[in-house]
TrEMBL record:
Domain Globin per the UniProt entry, residue ranges: 1-138
Name of the gene this protein is made from: hmpA
Protein name: Flavohemoprotein
Binding site for heme b: 85
Residues that coordinate or bind NADP(+): 276-281
The FAD-binding FR-type domain, residue ranges: 152-263
Residue positions binding FAD: 190, 206-209, 397-400
InterPro entries with a match to the protein in the record: Cbr1-like_FAD-bd_dom, FAD-bd_FR_type, Flavoprot_Pyr_Nucl_cyt_Rdtase, FNR_nucleotide-bd, Globin, Globin-like_sf, Globin/Proto, Hmp
């Protein structure tokens, strides 16, 4: 337990962190990578360049300071981050490195305002928070290893099939190269893929949702080829997977992880809402529901740019045709003439509340939402406006967590 005086000091820094949080975390990463470049083998370089990782850490530090007197309020966020850490291979020995550079960054950015008293209080608070993370992650590591088919660290998987699902999305079917079976997982979870790209001094790790139901002899991931636009560069790993990895090649995978999972118990209707490649965990959830709970009603809504960008369309239609409890609807932001002529979609434009009310039988359902951050912001705001209960709203960010404030329409 933290001393009352420590809590008071930490809480007094909340307004400062609100203003300088990003500057502190930017300086933190600069310092840490300069002294420990080996950690670039773990962190997502693209998220660093785009500032998403810095923003996510700033948000986490701010939340920890704001709730320092009742850290149980941020426990869900701790578990979500711990899943990512376990999937990436973050270990207890990394925490002192992070702590040292975080405190130094606070001191550098705030200057004389960061008194010895403040730095000491933050050092004490960080130590307690780090212990909590280490404890949660240690349990996750143990569960990962000891489950049937489980393993520690990264395991080699062979690509047995590669299927183009849409213009930007390709699926990879993966089986353990050692001949054993894969560990099971919960619908909605992801795995980490580690690759060594020729010419790059560091390994690259990316997390991809498993896009089929558990219980198969393979894992399936469905990867969007991230081609750069404007000042945004190509996605190194996604381009490498699409262009270089072929059937017969191997990839290193960590065991499944993640908190965004289907609640399989109960009879409440399920609504799956996805944008772009955010439909990958929804495919796992949909397939799991019709296999294990065939009486449960499911509404599947997907937003894509056009029919050319729409993955798994035929697979979902076939599932709906075979299972009358499933209904499916598409929203295209830029439908082609062919899309319009074939009437292959249900809504032109973006997901809007009136349309949601028209196709979703009732708001008393379990809603799962996944897609780009602006898409999440938009759908989340509309569901809240409709009056969907907080406990019925489940969502996942692809990449570092962001804010769900400021909804807006977005191309997917």
């Amino acid at each position: 337990m933290l001393k009352p005086e420590t809590i008071r000091i930490i809480q007094s820094t909340v307004p400062v962190l609100e203003v300088y949080g990003n500057a502190i975390t930017k300086r933190f990463y600069e310092r840490m990578f300069a002294e420990h470049p080996e950690l670039l083998n773990i962190f997502n370089h693209a998220n660093q360049k785009q500032g998403r990782q810095q923003q996510a850490l700033a948000n986490a530090v701010y939340a920890a300071a704001k709730h320092i007197d009742r850290l149980e309020a941020i426990l869900p966020a701790v578990k979500q981050i711990a899943h990512k850490h376990r999937s990436l291979g973050v270990k207890p020995e990394h925490y002192p490195i992070v702590g040292r550079h975080l405190l130094a960054a606070i001191k550098e950015v705030l200057g004389e305002a960061a008194t010895d008293e403040i730095i000491a209080a933050w050092g004490e608070a960080y130590g307690m928070i780090a212990e909590a993370f280490i404890g949660v992650e240690q349990k996750m590591y143990e569960e990962s290893v000891h489950q049937p088919g489980g393993w520690e660290g990264f395991r080699s998987f062979r690509v047995v099939k590669k299927v183009k699902e849409s213009q930007p999305i390709t699926s990879f079917y993966l089986v353990p190269a050692d001949g054993g079976g894969p560990a099971s997982f919960l619908p909605g979870q992801y795995i980490s893929v580690r690759v060594q790209i020729p010419g790059s001094p560091y390994t690259h790790i990316r997390q991809y949702s498993l896009s089929d139901s558990p219980g198969k002899p393979y894992y399936r991931i469905s990867v969007k080829k991230e081609e750069g636009e404007g000042n945004r560069p190509d996605g190194q790993v996604s381009v490498y997977l699409h262009d270089q990895i072929q059937e017969g090649d191997t990839l290193d995978l960590s065991a499944p992880a993640g908190e965004f999972v289907l609640e399989k118990e109960g009879e409440k209707p399920v609504v799956l809402i996805s944008g772009g490649v955010g439909l990958t965990p929804m495919m796992s959830m949909l397939n799991s529901l019709v296999e294990s709970n065939p009486g449960r009603k499911v509404t599947f809504l997907h937003a894509a740019r056009s029919g050319e960008h729409h993955a798994f369309r035929q697979a979902v239609l076939e599932t709906a045709a075979a299972h009358p409890q499933v209904s499916a609807y598409w929203c295209y932001s830029e439908p082609t003439d062919e899309d319009r002529d074939s009437r292959s979609f249900h809504k032109d434009g973006y997901v809007e509340l009136d349309w949601l009310k028209a196709v979703v039988p009732a708001k008393e359902a379990s809603f799962y939402v996944c897609g780009p951050v602006p898409f999440l912001q938009n759908v989340y705001a509309q569901l809240k406006e409709w009056g969907v209960a907080d406990q019925d709203l489940h969502y996942e960010f692809f990449g570092p967590a962001a804010s769900l404030e400021a909804p807006q329409n977005v191309e997917v």
